[in-house]
Amino acid sequence: MSNRLIELQLYHLRLPFKHSFSHAAARRAETDTVLLAALLADGTIGYGEGVPRPYVTGETIESILYNISDTFAAALRKVEPKSFPELLDLIDNLPFTNEQNQIINAARSAVELALLDAYARHYQSSLAGIAGWLGCGFFTGDASIHKIRVSGVLDGADPDRMMKQLKLMRWYGLKNFKLKVGYEHDIENLNLINQKYHKSLSYGKMSLRVDANGAWDIDAAVAMSDKMASLNVCCLEQPLAPNDHSHYRTIADLSRIPLMADESLLTVDDAEYLIENDLIDYFNIRISKNGGIIPAIKIAEIAHKYGRGIQLGAMVGETAVLAAAGQQFLQMTPNVEFTEICYSTFLLQKDIAKRKIRFGYGGKLPNIGPLGLGINIPREKISTFLVQPPRKITLA
What we know:
Layout lengths: L4 E19 L2 E15 L4 E6 L10 H15 L8 H9 L12 H18 L7 H5 L17 E3 L4 H13 L4 E5 L5 H17 L4 E5 L6 H11 L6 E3 L10 H7 L4 E3 L6 H9 L5 E4 L1 H4 L2 H13 L3 E4 L7 H13 L5 E2 L39 H6 L6 E4 L2
Parallel strand pairs: 4-5, 5-6, 6-7, 7-8, 8-9, 9-10, 10-11
Antiparallel strand pairs: 1-2, 1-12, 2-3
Helix pairs in contact: 1-3, 2-3, 5-6, 9-11
């Protein structure tokens, strides 16, 4: 039977959190996301996800829905690949901007993942061959999935609550932590952590990163890096606003802590700019933020080539779809140092997959299936979280 792509189904979902989560750029008690189902003529369905964050890619729920319905649907009218590599060629040429030259990475992520999931299922294939198809010669080590452990992400808004979070995460065997900063009491939080866990931090039994989400100006960023250098902080993520290019060189030269790019790292061009100007020590790659698995691997290859560290981050509140996509990335990419995926019902009240895609004791990642993204999405779970009626786009 034909494997022609015949329909896209768009779902705006809203998933409530078990408790609110905040950082310097936002506070939320729920997440809004777009789930995309790609339906093939033989009945195969694949799922993708894009999470809009206006302060990251500039996208909203409505912009994702519009760009998939307009920009991407027009490019998907006659998709009927004769092989999986042919599909990968098609996906690789999907746009990252719309006609207004606006970044559409979250929308692209939803489209890419849905196509990969559907056609890998159709061809009874895993996604593990993508890195080889891309010709990533630097990916010679063991895949990160076998050894990496999930980091605990700490909400720094309330010091007492933050310490309770940290205590529970330590009991659960987590060793790597990231603290959200950008508050008046940042140093108080770091002092509290060091008072309790100084020996573990000093002897490498724990690690501590901080993430400012672009909250500081250059003076604050330099001053805070000086203070944090004596508080066992191993990495400072996105200290400056992503559009503050004029001060990238200054913080790179003056920071006493290795720097990580997040909101300033949206595209392969961004990665090349940061490397060419020697502005960064780590890349924070996020599947939705960077437009899918394929561009994420390309950015990771740049990091490997030039000796930069890699973190696989997550959009707060992403569902099992993006969690599974992150695991696919980790199965192809060696030497990823940190990851923050698969929080599932540690944060969400409920998730949409048939089985929880949630990390276990010590941050160990769960197993996923061998075909497509490796998860199953029951339709009744999707309907539980619908905000508006689904949109159907007929392609054939």
